[in-house]
Each structure stands twice: as C-alpha cells, then as structure tokens.
Specification:
Helix content is about 40%, strand content about 15%. The chain is built from 6 helices and 8 strands; from the N terminus they run H-H-H-E-H-H-E-E-E-E-E-E-E-H.
C-alpha cells in the first residue's frame, strides 16, 4: 500500500523547524567555545562543579602586585622596609661578671714560704716571707671580694662579699666611681704578659685631665689619659674576651 500523500503545509512547517534547530546547535557550540576560552582550567581530578579557591587562582603577577602595594603603603604610612624582607633584630650582649682567679694569691703565698725556707727561718727570712704571706692573704680577700663587671656601656669594679654586687665607692687614687665607659678606653694589657699575668692595666680618658698626672698616670704621658693597675684576681682570658667584644681600644691593634 502506498502512504497517503502528506499535506504540503505540514512539510513546510517541518523544514523550518529542522533548520532552526541546526542554527541553535551551531550558536551553542560557538558560545561554549568562547566560554571555555575565558574560563579557568579545571583539574582532571576535580569535578566541573567545584569552585577554585582564592589561593589556587592567584597568579604570580597578582602576588607581585600585592607585594608592591604593601611596599608602597608601608612607605607612605611609615612602615619602612620591603614587605618581602624580614627585619632582623640586633642581639644584645648580656652583662658579664668575670670569674675570680686565685693564682696570683697562691703564687705570692708560695713565694713567701720559699723566702722563709731559703733563709732558714732567720729574721730576714721571717720578715720578708711574713710580709709576702701577708700580701698573699690580702690578695685572697680581694679576690673573694672584688668582681670585674662588663655591662652594656661600661667596665666596672664591684664588691661581691654580700652575695650581691655593690658599688666599691670612689677610686682611692684619682676619685670618681670605679666605672669607665668602653668608648673612653685608649689601651689595655696584662703585665708582665698574658701567659704570666700579675697586673691588669688599662688607660682611659674619662677621668678629668687635671688628674692624669696623679698616681700611676705620671708614668705614662703618651697620648694622654689616666692609667690604672689592678691585681690579676680575675680570669684574664675572660677579661681579654670582653675587652675585645666590647670594642675597647688597644694600642697595638
């Protein structure tokens, strides 16, 4: 049987509908192409519905722009420095109390005994040896009592008999406190040498110039300043370390 002929109006209505559908599909494909060109890439491991985080979507150029803005705002409002750099705090040097050293006192005590022995307990030996032993006893007391202290700005001689450090009063030779700033140092050393220290020597200009000729200052007139001598009743290796660390001037350096 032959199919009945279709109405011409129906054919005309079907053909425009098919062409319109094709045009719509073409426009949709073009639109989706443009959309994919401007859309952020999606990882193969993440579903298309997942939204990228702010940190993941930030580009290197955006990060550099943020740093530049931070630097600009810091300069305007006084923040100072580069935002990409970290400020480094300068470490402070802690105060140091030098350990006592009884070697000088022991040395004089041994020498006193030697004098008594060599003169076979004669009057001369007793006098010389006795005075030397007496001086050795004095050094023991001073070693136990005095402390060499280095603080932030100055070198100081303090008393430590009470268990707490206290001022030693005025200098017995030129007056003034037994405290001298590092900037006033002109020289320091150990006599006769560091390997065999008996005296600690240093020279400073903090003392008033009219006092420089008093006491031991009269023996050293080179370059000006007041000189001081102390028995080496503290560890000289620690003293040397602190003198250098605090920037105390030395003639031969």
């Amino acid at each position: 049987h032959l199919a009945p002929p279709q109405d011409s109006k129906m054919v005309k209505m079907v053909r425009p509908t098919a062409s319109a559908t094709a045009v719509a599909l073409l426009v949709g494909a073009i639109a989706s192409g443009y959309a994919s060109a401007f859309a952020p890439p999606i990882s193969h491991h993440v579903r298309a519905s997942t939204r990228p985080t702010a940190s993941a979507s930030a580009s290197p150029a955006a990060t550099a722009t943020q740093i530049q803005m931070q630097n600009l705002l810091g300069g305007i409002f006084g923040g100072g420095g580069d935002a990409s750099e970290k400020a480094v705090a300068k470490p402070n040097i802690p105060d140091v109390v030098v350990d006592p050293d009884y070697n000088v006192a022991i040395g004089f005590a041994a020498y006193g005994i030697f004098l008594v022995a060599i003169f076979q307990a004669s009057l001369l030996g007793v006098v010389l040896g006795g005075l030397t032993l007496l001086f050795a006893s004095f050094l023991v007391v001073q070693t136990n009592r005095l402390r060499f202290v280095f603080d932030e700005t100055s070198f100081e001689l303090k008393s430590g008999l009470s268990g707490e450090l206290a001022d030693t009063g005025e200098n017995v030779v030129v007056g003034g406190a037994n405290r001298w700033t590092y900037a006033s140092f002109k020289n320091w050393d150990f006599l006769p040498s560091k390997d065999f220290p008996i005296l600690v020597y240093f020279k400073e200009t903090q003392t008033s110039a009219d006092k420089w000729e008093e006491g031991p200052g009269q023996f050293d007139k080179v370059g000006g300043g007041q000189i001081h001598f102390f028995p080496a009743i503290a560890k000289v290796d620690q003293l040397e370390e602190q003198f250098r660390l605090r920037g105390c001037a030395k003639v031969d350096e």
